[in-house]
Design a protein that fits this description.
330 residues, mainly alpha, MetI-like fold, two-stranded antiparallel sheet, 3% strand, transmembrane helix, cell membrane
């Protein structure tokens, strides 16, 4: 009977990054969760189309002065010579043209294309900042409530219920209507944008707070949290180093789906006259002005389509991102 041969560890161990298949010719590369999510997202052509439209809208908002300089004119410039003084509508032959790609507004003759492009700046800026505020507040309070539980969870949960029952639209109209033109060291558009970001972002955090709380309740019972506790880790360390990294996916997905909601809310406030003040162009404000001239369809069509395309693109991309980041999805 022969003695077994000595075998070193290097002859029998396989690296986790690459495993040789049965034929011995090809290595199967391991994939990270991010790579798997990207592969799933690439297969969803509708979500990719939505993502490309979102990127396009962001670029339009960032480079609005360049685009308007090439294809339009100052969005506040009046063209009274193109308006019929008797009817206050554009003269015959002064509609959509090479000089005015989307036509001109009644009464003052401002270029609709330039105002739609600049309106993207206000709508997306308010939507992104309000979403960021909601995500920060909702994540911190949601993970705190879910991790500590007990009295802390009860207080935060009841606070969420109060905010969810709050008549946000009525409050926003009242607050935005009584704030003067100068307050808190801010004036003009800066004050109105900051006010809208606060109203929309601060009162919408319970939605994401509930999602984060529910995910935290599940994660805090997992083995890696128990291991961190057994090693002496305290609450703040577990929250920021163990729980939050595992909450990035649902937070990112919900933030993507919250942005179009905020775009619609900002447009609604501007439509009701309590958003950013004229002559600064906003999509909702343009729709409000267009109501009086319903016989001129392009005046209402282009800002309405801008809102529709923006909301649809974010929703499609958000749905695809949710499917890509869901580990249970096939």
């Amino acid at each position: 009977m022969t003695a077994p041969m000595d075998v070193t560890g290097g002859d029998t161990e396989a690296t986790p990054e690459a495993v040789v298949d049965a034929s011995g010719d090809k290595a199967i590369q391991g994939r990270s969760l991010g790579q798997i999510a990207w592969m799933r997202l690439k297969r969803d052509k509708v979500a990719l189309a939505g993502g490309l439209i979102v990127i396009f809208l962001i670029l339009v908002a960032v480079f609005a002065p360049v685009i308007v300089g090439l294809l339009g004119q100052d969005p506040t410039q009046f063209n009274s010579d193109l308006i019929d003084s008797s009817t206050m509508v554009p003269k015959t032959g002064t509609g959509i043209s090479a000089d005015h790609l989307f036509g001109i507004e009644p009464v003052n003759g401002r270029d609709i294309f330039s105002r739609v492009v600049y309106g993207a700046r206000i709508s997306l800026l308010i939507a992104f900042l309000a979403t960021l505020l909601s995500v920060v507040i909702g994540t911190l309070l949601g993970v705190t409530a879910g991790f500590f539980g007990g009295l802390v969870d009860s207080i935060i949960s009841k606070t969420m219920d109060v905010f969810l029952a709050f008549p946000l639209l009525v409050f926003a109209i009242a607050l935005a209507g009584i704030v003067p033109d100068s307050a808190f060291g801010l004036t003009g558009d800066t004050l109105r944008v900051s006010l809208l970001v606060f109203i929309i972002g601060f009162f919408n955090w319970p939605y994401i707070g509930r999602i984060v709380r529910g995910q935290t309740l599940s994660l805090r019972e997992r083995e890696f949290v128990d291991a961190a506790r057994s090693l002496g880790a305290r609450g703040p360390y577990i929250i920021f180093r163990e729980l939050l990294p595992n909450l990035i996916a649902p937070i990112l997905v919900y933030a993507t789906l919250l942005i179009p909601t905020n775009v619609l809310f900002e447009a609604a406030l501007s439509f009701l006259g309590v958003g950013v003040r004229p002559p600064t162009p906003t999509w909702g404000g343009m729709l409000a002005d267009a109501v009086r001239f319903y016989t001129i369809p392009h005046f209402m069509f282009f800002p309405g389509m801008a809102i529709f395309i923006t909301v649809l693109a974010f929703n499609l991309f958000g749905d695809g991102l949710r499917d890509a980041l869901d580990p249970k999805a096939r």
